[in-house]
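Hey, can you fold this one?
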Amino acid sequence: MQFPCEYEDTGLLLQPQLEGQDYGAAAADGTQCPSVSVSRNSSAKRDCLVVAVLCCGNLINFIDWFIVPGILLEIQKYFGLSDGETGLLQTVFTLCYMLAAPIFGYLGDRYNRKIILGAGIFFWSGVTLGSSFITESHYRIFVLSRGLVGIGSASYSTIAPTIIADLFEEGKRTTVLSIFYIFIPVGSGCGYILAAGVAESTGDWHWALRVTPCMGGLALLLLILLVPHRIQRKTAAHRALSISGTIQGTDEKPDVHRTAKTTWCQDVGSLVQNCSFVCSSLGLTAMAFVTGSLGVWMPLFLYRAQVVQGIVPPCRQESCNSSNSLIFGGITIGTGILGIIAGAEAARLLRKINNKADPLICATSMFISALCLYIALMVAQTNILSTFIFIAFGELFLSVNWAVVTDILLYVVTPRRQSTAIALQILVSHLLGDAGSPYLIGVISNAIQARNIPSLQWSFQSMQYSFVICAFIGVLGGGFFLLTSFFIEEDREEAQRV
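Sure. Predicted structure:
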């Protein structure tokens, strides 16, 4: 019985060591297997190149996501919008984003992912460019354009992480995912900075919407040239299938996609029964709830705290000081990068001594983050510097979980359902998280103000009291991650068997 040296174009060396056989030894027919190190080095370089392209696309994706919030005041003046109509722009974007995610999850598990990614980049870049030419009398078309951009973004956020899962095994996957997710806070901050900078330098906010499509075109070109058309999965389950097919003497390369054909409803039914996936998704939803609230309301809360302390006077003009937004944006970028790196490194080290390390890291960081946010809210009326410090720590520990949560999903869900799982996670986390949390915080704040005499003090306290809900939601999220630790070992073994 003879084993082929490797499968062509997969980069996977499938040489099971038999008794009395050394790696690199001549085969029975006198042929010599190629060097293992050369093949592995070539495969590693290709994989790193693919990840670099995906990270570039993720950066541009989130720059485009936050380009409109960065010039929101100019857009509001241009279209003559009320606050409610202005807020509708982000609401429509988020709703379309989360509703489109399951569709792309279904497509990503069944069709070529490179084509779907390329189509998504081309679509959102084209729509963004077209929206820059919409006149002031067509506000509804502008709202529609933001929804379409959300659809294009959903294709990228749903499928790109699963390609990374295909390229790397569990040991390296968390590190690579952490690098990929670093570009979320970096892209978000760059979106604000780029939008404001281009609008100020050109004197016309429309040009801010014409820069990112050019960047999207570059990302699309890199995707076409540098990302392989088909990527074989490098999971343990895939190698077992490959070796099994070889032993049986088949010449056809095994394909995980062809191991079983299931409907979307069957995939969803299986995921709902996966306790680790369900609990970790609910924990991620709590994270999204908190981050969504912080992103919208924290600069305003800091401003009201400074007014109460007498640090700044009440704003009576149309354009107020934006220093709180700039500081908070800088904190978000810095803590996002540090938190994601720290989370990946903690997971790498602690997995060696505890198989439940990932959910326990997420649970601990959520509890600490909730405590820091609660302290920040309580000291805001007396010490604004301490407020900034505790907000920074709260965001830091919140950011620890981003890459780790995705890695949990990738090893408790069988590969052929990963795109669907990510899509469902996106849908649930946005639907129950950041899609509604800013509105809920505002409604609670308005209700508190309505029951008291209007004053600057109550304007601050109403926001302070409504924000406390974020601390409790953070504790709830930590509880869901803690619950995940009870099921994760069993679900991981089940995913590897399928």
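The radius of gyration is 25 Å. Let me know if you want another pass with a different chain boundary.
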